[in-house]
Amino acid sequence: MPVMDKLKAISGSAAIVGVAESDAIGRVPEKGPMELHAEAGRNALADAGIDKSEVDGVFTAGYSTYDIAEYMGITPHFTDSTSVGGSSFVIHLAHAMAAIEAGYCEVALITHGESGRSNRARPAGNPGLAGAQYEALRHHGRADRLLAGRKSLHAPVRRRPNA
Fold first, then answer.
1. pLDDT band at residue 58, thresholds of 50, 70 and 90?
2. Which is nearest to 10 in space by CA: 92, 89, 98?
3. What pTM, to 2 d.p., does this model score?
């Protein structure tokens, strides 16, 4: 069966049942990415009316799914840390739907959290150089990759009751 036929066959079998952001967005220097993941995750689960004990699948990029799960007090049966850049979380939706359909998990929590806007600083050096126009992300005293986002977003996904 071609891939598109397989995707069409499971279309509608799962649904996004809650969505939320972290408690604060924008510049939040007092919160790290892990805390933003957890806040938005808790808020999305509350939006969906799902207890964290029901979550058995965790999907995220940028951090270990096990670190996120442990920080949130979740014991997953299935995890996915596919990382392909800014579209990772769109891909996680398809992966969560497939995992639910295959029986690997029943409730998947897709997480994202970063504090890029809060941790940026201008690099020292010659302001006349082309690179001086960009901000460098500083995380725990070391230069890290530039993160463009400024908030956290999570979406629990679960099987539709009549699917």
1. very high
2. 98
3. 0.69
β-strand pairing of 107-111 with 57-60? parallel
- 16-122+130-159 belongs to which homologous superfamily? Thiolase/Chalcone synthase (3.40.47.10)
CA geometry: angle at 73 spanning 68 and 77, to 5°?
A: 75
User: Is 50 in contact with 156 (CB distance < 8 Å)?
Assistant: yes
b/e burial code for range 63-88 (CB count within 10 A of at least 16 → b): bebeebbeebebebebbbbeeeeeeb
Res 161: pLDDT: 63
In angstroms, the CA 111 to CA 61 distance is 8
Torsion of CA 86, 93, 75, 161, to 10 degrees: 160
CA atoms within 13 A on the CB side of 100: 29
CB crowding 89-113: b at 16 or more within 10 Å, else e: bebbbebbbbbbeeebbbbbbbbbb
Centre a 10 Å sphere on the Cβ of residue 58 and count the other Cβ atoms it contains: 30
What residue segments make up the domains of the chain, in order of their start? 16-122+130-159
User: What angle in degrees, to the nearest 10, is found between the helix axes of 33-48 and 65-72?
Assistant: 60
Q: What is the mean pLDDT of the chain?
A: 75
